[in-house]
Design goal:
With 393 residues, this protein is α/β, with parallel strands linked by helices. It folds into two domains: 3-30 and 61-255, Aspartate Aminotransferase, domain 2 (3-Layer(aba) Sandwich); 258-391, Alpha-Beta Complex (Aspartate Aminotransferase, domain 1), CATH 3.90.1150. The chain contains 15 helices and twelve strands. The structure holds pyridoxal-5'-phosphate.
Length: 393
């Protein structure tokens, strides 16, 4: 079946699946480290061109390949490279496309480890980096340099829910001989397709919306061209950032319901955001689905929906935030996001605690900021949970 012609929700279920010899309706788990060659000649052919057969699971595996093909199709890319985690995807991109004396330009409020691995480690090898407010396109134009190899953006960014114009960044990157990489974890391919807007590489933490069930960690890189794929894939294999077949199976199972989950999470998120916006104990709230959201036009230009992530600041700062987190019962106090279960967390003391306070504040991550990832529970239970916890503040 040519799944390329199908609509998104059908692709979620069928793309990447292949005719399995026993007629299995789902992609089987090929839980094997290695694959037998039919003959010495076949083995030699596999090494010459691994399309001729599977060799070793770090290199490739049918279950993992099904997931790679599924997601490459969802993002309209050339091909996918599955990794052990989202950070495995991020560091494979850095390693493959940067080198001594290269410059790296990125969003200041990018996912904490994506920034700290650059500043604490890649800089040791002679890569220089700048982290700026990429929602300011003039600032991006001013900050890109002739030696910039990668413009790396996260939109919406984490946890400030700030958008960056993908199309404009692609133009700036290409005018300066750089590659545009987009971390699309917060939107998932359901709401945003960066490669269609000019990006060269898109990556996801599959741990979040795509798997959606908080039971597996994983990552994927999808490139627009064969050339970029051929640069990144061998590096990922050599560094051993590969996914495991069982992980691939769980994520293939999770991705099937991405459309349904996203629909429900967004419905819930809109109601919760409105409730929070009108609450006297809330200083401000950022959610792309609210009328008050400042980047509404950009949201409509590049996203098909506002997503299910929001940040808000309570009056009473860090103490009020801790009270809220200690009193919610339906929402789980945990990092991560994009699952069927609602999660709440405090970036300044949790996900972004690795960044010094002044850098955090410059990136818009204030001490009282609370991040809320809306799941698919009954909206009345979620609202009641917040009402009861807010009463205790
Ligand atoms: C979680 C996350 C990552 C890292 O993914 P892991 O699967 O935890 O390694 C990268 N970017 C964003 C935006 C994330 O939310």
């Amino acid at each position: 079946m040519d799944t390329k012609k199908l609509n998104f929700d059908t692709k979620l279920i069928h793309a990447g699946h292949y005719d399995e010899p026993f007629g299995s309706a789902t992609v089987p788990i090929y839980q094997t480290s290695t694959f037998a060659f039919k003959s010495a000649e076949h083995g030699a052919q596999c090494f010459d061109n691994n399309k001729k057969g599977y060799i070793y699971t770090r290199i490739n595996n049918p279950t993992i390949e099904a997931l790679e093909n599924n997601l490459a199709e969802l993002e309209n890319g050339y091909a996918g490279i599955a990794t052990a985690s989202g950070m495995g995807a991020c560091t494979s991109i850095y390693m493959a496309l940067l080198g001594k004396d290269a410059h790296f330009l990125s969003t200041s409020s990018v996912y904490g480890p994506s920034r700290s691995v650059m500043e604490n480690h890649f800089n040791r090898f002679g890569v220089s980096s700048d982290f700026i407010d990429t929602s300011d396109i003039e600032l991006v134009k001013k900050s890109i340099r002739p030696d910039t190899h990668i413009l790396f953006i996260e939109t919406p960014s984490n946890p400030t829910i700030q958008l960056t114009d993908i199309e404009a960044c692609a133009q700036i990157a290409h005018d300066n001989g750089a590659i545009l990489v987009v971390d699309n974890t917060f939107s998932s391919p359901c709401l945003q397709n960066p490669l269609d807007m000019g990006a060269d590489v898109v990556f996801h933490s599959l741990t979040k919306f795509i798997n959606g069930h908080a039971d597996a960690v994983g990552g994927i890189i999808i490139t627009k061209t064969k050339e970029l794929y051929d640069k990144i894939r061998p590096l990922m294999i050599s560094m051993g950032c590969n996914m495991d077949p069982h992980q691939a199976y769980l994520i293939l199972r999770g991705v099937k319901t991405l459309g349904l989950r996203m629909e429900r999470s967004q419905q819930n998120a809109k109601r919760i955001a409105q409730w929070l916006e009108s609450h006297p104990k809330v200083e401000w709230i950022k959610y792309p689905g609210l009328g008050s959201y400042t980047q509404k036009d950009l949201m409509k230009k590049q996203m098909r929906g506002p997503g299910a992530m929001m940040s808000f600041e309570l009056k009473g700062g860090i103490e009020a935030g801790a009270k809220l987190m200690n009193n919610v019962k339906v929402a789980t106090l945990a990092v991560s996001l994009g699952g069927v279960e609602t999660l709440i967390q405090h970036p300044a003391s949790m996900t972004h605690s690795g960044l010094p306070k002044e850098i955090r504040e410059k990136a818009g991550i204030s001490d009282g900021l609370v991040r809320y990832s809306v799941g698919i529970e009954d909206i009345n239970d979620l609202l009641k949970d917040l009402e009861e916890a807010f009463d205790k503040i």
